[in-house]
From TrEMBL:
Gene3D superfamilies: 2.60.40.790. Belongs to the small heat shock protein (HSP20) family. Residues 29-141 form the SHSP domain. PROSITE patterns: SHSP. The keyword Ubl conjugation does not apply. Keywords: Stress response. This is Hsp20 family protein.
Length: 152
């Protein structure tokens, strides 16, 4: 795989550190963890759902945190005091994990639910009023309309 050196870009730009770190992560996809498996679904025009397979984990074993547009889901299975058994074969992975997702600006996590071994995270993209499209009225008297807009 090719390695790209982004050092020249760091020297000539200011404020793009987050973009370059995301590019570094994309280039090193081979090093990305594959456990636990997950799905990302679009459930509406501005709504999304991330479903992560967390079989064997309870809500007490999972931690969900959003910090600086990064969603982190951590799982650490705590040993059960009441259940002391000898496992003859362990095919269900219950190892600790830390899965991270980069969120776009304006994307908020609005809910989380654990059901049937799947952790569902619901996300919504909230578009600020300033960025929403707006209709501009057209009048037949161009000069009068511009003066009316300035006065308002």
């Amino acid at each position: 795989m090719r390695q790209y050196d982004l050092a020249p870009l760091y020297r000539n730009t200011v404020g793009f550190d987050r973009l370059f770190s995301m590019l570094d992560q994309l280039v090193s996809v081979d090093a990305a963890p594959s456990y636990p498996p997950y799905n990302i679904e679009r459930t509406g025009e501005n709504a999304y759902r991330i479903s992560i397979a967390v079989a064997g984990f309870t809500d007490r074993d999972l931690t969900i945190e959003v910090k600086e547009n990064t969603l982190s889901v951590r799982g650490e299975r705590k040993p059960s005091e009441e259940r002391k058994v000898d496992v003859l074969h362990q095919g269900i992975a219950a190892r600790s994990f830390d899965r991270r997702f980069q969120l776009a600006d304006g994307v908020q996590v609005v809910g989380a639910a654990l059901e049937n071994g799947l952790l569902h995270l619901d996300l919504v993209r909230e578009i600020p009023e300033a960025k929403k499209p707006k209709l501009i009225p057209i009048s037949s008297n161009g000069a009068q309309a511009i003066e009316a807009q300035k006065a308002a």
